[in-house]
Amino acid sequence: MSARIRMRVLRVPCEKVGVADPWAFSEAHESEFPALGTCPYFAVAPTVRPFIDYVLRDQISDAQSFGKTRSLTPAEKRRYGPAFRRLFPEISMDDVRHVEFCFYSGCEAPDYYDEEM
Prior knowledge:
single chain; alpha+beta; 5 strands; globular
């Protein structure tokens, strides 16, 4: 059954972290990509463009579709850097965006990443 899902994630494009196939990468690192998990957890983004999301919050919602994105604050870069470096030791946290969006789970989510959306 499909539902509207509201998510708050930290998103990085696969090309920025050297991931050619996000699904194969998630299988190779399955302990970081749980099938069902308690937030926070890593996931392949439900988008057309390939992204890796670090899901901070996900919930069923009645909100209309929307999306917004921004760069991480210095405090967020320090707080979440260790989680990202476990998977991507050379990552620049400047490539990670804070993204909030709501979408209908029966469809792909919009590719929110660029700032000022």
